[in-house]
Design brief:
This protein is α/β, with parallel strands linked by helices. It has 2 domains: 2-120 and 182-215, no CATH class; 236-335, no CATH class. It has 13 helices and 7 strands. A 4-stranded mixed sheet has the order 3-2-1-4, covered by helices on one side. It has a 3-stranded mixed sheet with strand order 5-6-7, with helices on one face. Strand 1 and strand 2 form a beta hairpin.
């Protein structure tokens, strides 16, 4: 029981983390770490720790442990469903989470740097863009990168412009930038934590499904092909068009109402669509190498951004005309079919 209790305690840290906002430092602590000092290694290590604990409670030789694992599985699914309903870009929600700390502990280890003090380099370009994107989402500038294309402005210029826009909109003083960034970091942390929780849920789900198959297993009644068909990690969509053309395709399909993506609560009409594309298991060929479709927001900004739109209209029209030509050819093939 100790191992299952330890696992429940770990999950409780995700569902109800201890969050503190230090007013003097204008920074947030979560899991006893400063919010702007947490990187992906933190989540990778935590995820492996949770997987190890899950393995310890799924002992195939112990019927009691298997039953406990199934109960835990159902509770994990319920908790994950609850997490998916939370909006981590809602600043009012974010500000309601921390406990306010007005007096700093003299012996407490202070943050290495302030939240606003981060700088661009080729080695941290993704993290740099990530926090600026999160700032734009949390403070209501979801179309920022379309209005200020990344091909036109340097990373440092984009940071300065975004900060000025936010300070003006909120009527905040520059001295409060650290506070504003701290909540953007909190939003980013909670999203990454939720993604980790989703991977853990999927990991346990795969284990439970495997156990169920073992319980109902019949000799020679299952093949490797059947197992692979049921594994979503082996299912991926490989596009034979460029990343820019993928953005054009999805935007036009959305605009033509071929499909619908719920965008309730978001200012920009394609925010959720771009998030879906980034998180879907889709790939495209780049310089002979198959790469995942990530960072599609850049392509939307290039094609549909205010300043660069005029340079991409002909490109978009050429792609759509080519698509129409292919569809017309397909119609001709259908017409020629023998009934």
């Amino acid at each position: 029981m100790k191992k299952i209790n330890d696992l429940y305690s770990e999950i409780e840290l995700i569902i109800n983390p201890e969050i503190e906002y230090y007013h003097e430092l204008k920074n947030i602590k979560i899991h006893d770490k400063w919010i702007n000092e947490i990187d992906y290694l933190f989540f990778n290590e935590w995820e492996e720790k949770l997987k190890t604990k899950i393995n310890e409670i799924t002992d195939l030789e112990s019927p009691i442990k298997i039953k406990l694992a199934k109960v835990f599985h159902q509770e994990l699914l319920t908790k994950y469903d609850d997490l998916l309903k939370l909006d981590y870009t809602n600043i009012s929600y974010l500000k309601a989470l921390p406990r306010n700390i007005f007096m700093n502990n003299f012996f407490m280890k202070r943050p290495i740097s302030k939240c606003k003090d981060f700088y661009f380099s080729p080695d941290n370009s993704d993290a740099y863009e990530e926090i600026l994107t999160k700032m734009s989402e949390v403070y209501g500038f979801e179309d920022f990168f379309e209005n200020f294309p990344q091909d036109t402005y340097s990373p440092e210029e984009l940071k300065d412009i975004l900060q000025d826009e936010i300070l003006f909109k909120l009527n905040e003083k520059e001295e409060n930038l650290d506070m504003l960034y701290s909540y953007a970091y909190l939003s980013l942390f909670l999203e990454n934590q939720r993604k980790m929780f989703g991977r853990i849920t999927k990991y346990l789900d795969n284990l439970i499904n495997f156990i169920k198959k073992l319980e109902t297993f019949k000799e020679d009644d299952i093949t490797l092909d059947e197992v692979l068909v049921n594994n979503p990690n082996n299912l991926k969509l490989e596009f034979k068009i460029s990343k820019k053309e993928i953005a054009i395709l999805f935007k036009n399909l959305s605009d033509c109402e071929i499909f619908h993506v719920d965008n309730t609560g978001f200012k920009h009409e394609h925010t959720q669509l771009k998030k879906y594309i980034d998180n879907a298991n889709m790939y495209f060929s780049h310089n002979g190498e198959l790469k995942p479709v990530k960072g599609i927001n850049k392509e939307f900004a290039k094609i549909y951004g205010t300043e660069e739109r005029i340079m991409h209209r002909d490109f978009e029209k050429k792609f759509l005309k080519g698509l129409i030509k292919d569809l017309t050819k397909r119609i001709e093939e259908i017409n020629s079919e023998e009934l």
